[in-house]
Amino acid sequence: MRTAHTRIRSLAAKPGFSVSRPAFTMIEIMIVVIILGIIAAITIPQFSNASHQARENTMRDCLRYLRTQVTVFKAQHRDVPPGFPGGSLGATPDAPTFLNQMTSYSDELCNTSVTTSDVFHFGTYLSSMPANPLTGATGVWVVNSNTMPAPDQTQPYGWIYNAQTLDLIANVQGTDANGVPYSTY
């Protein structure tokens, strides 16, 4: 006894005979492609915005960490903040000294060493100066005045540090998505 399935298979084997199978029409395929395009147009900008928000949050975290490390340095070095050469508050603070003091081991008088010892037992506070997540700049602009300068992205610095007031801000102009200036983070 032959079944209908066997009969169709035997007919399909004969030359000039084909079995039609269900398939998608060109219109159906076009509709699917259009729907996928609409979904992509909606979601891709949201992913882009999410990555910018992630960089803003990373910048906040960097600032929080940097400020904490500056405070710890000052507490361990007779109330002298990082950046003052030789730990002298009468000296003019500078960026190379700040970076050296934050990334090396130090003694109580703010002298530095690349290795730890019984004398150089403070630090390291940073493994390296982090890059500003929004600009990619890693340098620090050390100022010594009672006021903070405004961010100036024409300068090659990622951060601005005031050794007198211990303020540390990102060198980024503008505001975030909520209208908060980056300089107030």
Describe the structure.
By secondary structure, the protein is of the alpha+beta class. The protein has one domain (24-184). The chain is 37% helix and 10% strand. The protein has 3 helices and 5 strands; from the N terminus they run αααβββββ. The model has no long low-confidence stretch (mean pLDDT 87).
What is the mean pLDDT? 87
Strand content: 5-15%
Largest sheet: 3 strands, mixed
**Count of alpha and pi helical runs:** 3
Number of strands: 5
Give me the secondary-structure category.
alpha+beta
Strand order of the largest sheet: 3-4-5
Tell me the distance between the termini. Answer: 84 Å
Q: Low-confidence spans: pLDDT under 50, at least 5 residues?
A: none
Counted up, domains total 1
> Gyration radius, to the nearest Å?
32 Å
**Element-level helix/strand string:** HHHEEEEE
Shape: elongated
Q: Which range best describes the helical content: under 10%, 10-25%, 25-40%, 40-55%, 55-70% or over 70%?
A: 25-40%
